[in-house]
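Long-time lurker, first post. I've been practising inverse folding by hand and with some scripts of my own, and I keep getting stuck on stretches where the structure tokens seem ambiguous. Below is the full token string for one chain I'm working on. Before anyone asks, I'm not after the true native sequence, just a reasonable design that respects the backbone. If someone could post their per-position residues I'd love to compare against what I wrote down in my notebook.
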């Protein structure tokens, strides 16, 4: 029986395209409303020295690249930091969360005292369906319940993606993956 299940899983892998397969990791995922991505995800040729699994964020392009083998990458549209909140550097994914809670940092609360002090994860949470926390920073790559902000410079420094795109990236990226952010 086990051999038949493994064989069926292998065959299913041949026929499903992982980039387009829905990822319903939990009950909240099934509540997401499909949205047309303002900037569609696509596989592109990619020349660079970065190893597969590396994430490259080019804030001036408002694009995130997930490096694949064979000189290819997945290109995603992202929202980036507004003027005064842009940054650049090299870090790695410190940890990942599905439907994360959100606690605005003190710096943000000083600028925006109207924000909640804490918000449970869920459909209305501004971190969206997934978050990948960038080690040594206050920043994350996360989903958004405002897909119209993708391609814009409106955040406080975090990298925003549509919920569908962040679920896709979350499933591909590993804790410890190198993240390079350029302006």
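-- Answer (accepted) --
I ran through it position by position. Result:
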């Amino acid at each position: 029986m086990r051999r038949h299940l493994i064989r069926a899983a292998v065959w299913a892998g041949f026929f499903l395209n992982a980039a387009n397969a829905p990822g319903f990791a939990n009950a909240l995922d099934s509540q997401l409303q499909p949205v047309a991505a303002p900037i569609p995800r696509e596989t592109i040729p990619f020349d660079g020295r970065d190893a597969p699994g590396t994430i490259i964020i080019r804030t001036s392009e408002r694009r995130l690249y997930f490096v694949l083998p064979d000189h290819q990458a997945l290109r995603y549209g992202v929202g980036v930091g507004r003027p005064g909140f842009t940054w650049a550097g090299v870090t790695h994914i410190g940890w990942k969360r599905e439907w994360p809670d959100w606690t605005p940092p003190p710096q943000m609360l000083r600028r925006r005292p109207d924000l909640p002090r804490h918000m449970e994860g869920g459909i209305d949470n501004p971190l969206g369906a997934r978050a990948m926390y960038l080690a040594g920073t206050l920043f994350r790559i996360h989903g958004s319940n405002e897909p119209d902000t993708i391609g814009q410079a409106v955040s406080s420094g975090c990298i925003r993606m549509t919920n569908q795109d962040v679920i896709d990236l979350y499933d591909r990226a590993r804790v410890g993956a190198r993240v390079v952010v350029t302006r």
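A couple of notes from the structure itself: Confidence is low (pLDDT under 50) at residues 1-24. The longest helix spans residues 2-15. Happy to go over any region you disagree with.
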